[in-house]
Amino acid sequence: MPQPTFAVSVTLRIRSEHIDSFRKRVLQQARDSVDREPGCHQFDVLIDESEPTVFVLYETYTDASAFDDHRSTPHFKDFDAQASDWIEAKNVHCLTLLEK
Q1: Less crowded by CB within 10 Å, the N or C end of the chain?
Q2: What is the CATH number of the domain that holds 28?
Q3: Neighbouring-strand partners of residue 90
Q4: CB 67 within 8 A of CB 8
Q5: Does any domain span residue 68?
Q6: What is the pTM of this model?
Q7: Which PANTHER family does the entry mention (predicted)?
Q8: Count of domains observed in the chain
Q9: pLDDT tens for each residue of 24-40
Q10: Which of 42, 38, 26 has its CA nearest to residue 76?
Q11: DSSP string covering the chain
């Protein structure tokens, strides 16, 4: 398997009344992404220790094209449609691995 060269860090502030629903749904999204997408190497879901409404998603992909493929999958589209109303704020960083 090739080394991932592309990563995405997404910081999300979730509306407090939707935290439990979001937690369950995003964990399923993470599993689906790793299990169903050969270009998705890692999909971690983290929560801010001091602010329980803040989640960080850290995802690694073979390359930017694999991330584009991820965004066109049915499970991503379903997640995005379901979770979009639960999200109060979103900040996305697309990152490329520097050569070693």
Answers
A1: C
A2: 3.30.70.100
A3: 12
A4: yes
A5: yes
A6: 0.94
A7: (4S)-4-HYDROXY-5-PHOSPHONOOXYPENTANE-2,3-DIONE ISOMERASE (PTHR33336:SF1), QUINOL MONOOXYGENASE YGIN-RELATED (PTHR33336)
A8: 1
A9: 999 999 999 999 999 99
A10: 26
A11: -PPP-EEEEEEEEE-GGGHHHHHHHHHHHHHHHHHH-TTEEEEEEEE-SS-TTEEEEEEEESSHHHHHHHHTSHHHHHHHHHHGGGEEEEEEEEEEPPP-
